[in-house]
Amino acid sequence: MVTSITSFGRSGLYDWMIQRVTAVVLAAYTIFMIGYLAFGAELTYEMWNSLFEGTAMRIFTLLALLSMAAHVWIGLWSVSTDYIKPTGLRFLFQSGSGLVTFIYVVWGIQILWGI
Amino acid sequence: MTRAVNKKRPVNLDLRTIKQPLPAITSILHRATGVALFVAAAFMMYALGLSLESEAGFNEAVEMFENGFLAKLIAWGCVSALLYHFFAGIKHLVMDFGHCEELESGLKAAQITLGLSAVAVLLAGVWIW
Q1: pTM
Q2: Which of A32, A86, A99, A105 has a 20 to 30 Å separation from A25 between CA atoms?
């Protein structure tokens, strides 16, 4: 049996499940943020700052950030495997995606705990 | 013995000349917006970082979204991609549970996804401007 070594969860089945679980987390975060920004009170710095100072929001945001990282990897992996046929180029694209994703995670943690 | 499949029938895999059914269009848009969101994440994180950095940073971000045309355009693009990806993702989850997999219901699901997204994208534009 040939196993793909570049998939996220070591098997397509895990990837499939992880993609969906992370999607639900990201959907919840999207609903919360759009609801807060579009339908909440007029935003002030105090409100915004205290929102992200709360532990619950930090956990939720970090969860969304890590979900995004996994979701992005599986998504970009699928898309690049479908459309980028030359192995070298695909390897380059996937490595680049992985690197950028890692930078996003570190950047996000810095933002969250730098308040 | 006669073969059921005539191997000499013409094959056309040229994407530019194939008329894509609506569910195929929603699928490719889901992929395109997914890739776009990967890039958009950088703008969103920049805005989040700026707004949380300090009160001055927050005011700068607010000023940017209130008066910067380019910032508004980028924000609208990000939110639009996010909204489409969101609705198409929900359609995907619904289909994972075995619904809307037939020709007719699949088409209906694609129409609803595109319709809802179009409305949401317009509303987002109104919200941003």
Answers
A1: 0.90
A2: A99
